[in-house]
Amino acid sequence: MITIPTKQLEKEFVSQDWDLRVKRPGYLQSRAIVSQAELQPLNISRSVVLKYNSIFWVNDANLYDNAATKNFYDKFIAAFKQDKKWPLKLVQQIDKAAGEAHSFCKYLKHKNWSQATVTEKLTTLKKYKTLLLRIQKYYIVAVPLTNYCEKELQLKNPTLLAGARSYKVLDVDRLHLSLISIKSNSGSKQKEMIRNHVKKYGWIKTAYNIIDNYTEKDVREEIKNISSKKLSGHPHVGNNYILVGLQAGIYLRNRMKEISQQIWFSFEPLAQQLAADLNIKREDFFQMRDEEVVQSLRNNNILVAKRDVKNRHQGYAHGYLNNREILWTGPIVKKLYSHVTKPDKINKNGLEGQVACRGLVQGEAKIILRQAEFNKLKPGDILVTNMTTPDYTVIMKKAGGIVTDEGGLSCHAAIVSRELNIPCIIGTKIATKSLKDGELVEVDANMGIVRKLKSKGKK
Fold it and tell me: Where in this chain does the record put each PEP-utilising enzyme mobile domain (predicted)?
């Protein structure tokens, strides 16, 4: 692993055509495992293999080799020529891994880790990493596949995009149905259902080992706003392999995410015990790579310098540049971050994005980046966010319009906005930074433009 930056490597990094796909907070440990998973070659058909050589995190910015992603489109064409049903085989693979993950999560939660031996802990840590490697590798196909299929359908049969739903039912769909069921009850029965719901779906707000507790209060707030209307089902359109590919890509992306959330959430008791064994804080434990944790446990002594852990908390760049693992801290991180996150120029006519659901609406913009801010949104307001996730559904129903920084035509915001017939523009990149709370805006989801308005009147 390369830990000392050089001018040559910096030049190589800067000259790389990076796709800044998402911005997410997270610890080094989980991100390092995820990057390792995404570096694995993935066979999608008899002779077609997908492979990234360059993947990077710079603070919260997740970067992918753009040239490789574009090359995947040609590989998808080749794979479909060999086997029209290859995406469904990946669905079968991830479902098999999901079954093992669910059993493993039960084991993690019910084991008394304070009484476990070092060997048991090391064996479980290895299993934890192995499962994440198996699950997270599907991300390299899920996003490019959905983007490819979206573009093909947009060109050849755009009406089929209305069927852009997950190929199969997801755990988050079951969560939504559970909330509807809870709302239909009352009294002691409802209280019991809420307790069971929180216990079952406690993982829903977890990502990259960041645990944000899902509480009974959250559930009560959700059922206040939730509609009894069920979202449409998960159609299998077997005669159109591109639509099936799109549905499979959506399923892979969301299934991978929710399984990983459950693994990270269930790993927490063991992680806290390992941190205690090493006599370090939980947060410091998660800034250690898993190899460093293993070596430290075997030596019964932490082998990472305190200053290195401190530097990682302040910011780091980690990933792979042409298959070489790199971990940098210090001034170079700020320099690289400025390079990859330099703001796009704002069109004088307004913010431009992709139309997910057509319509024209005016309203007050409300910037909402986390669940704690959900109460800011009033009926008719314009929901402005990085991206939506299933927990956002309860407030999306109140929104007059939806605007996101990220996403494609099969992202959560796009799917739900079409279900609810709410004007929606996705992929603006900078809406959350250029718009302000309470600002009057017009969402022109016919042209794909968000305009700031001076008038206070609402339409």
Answer: 378-448
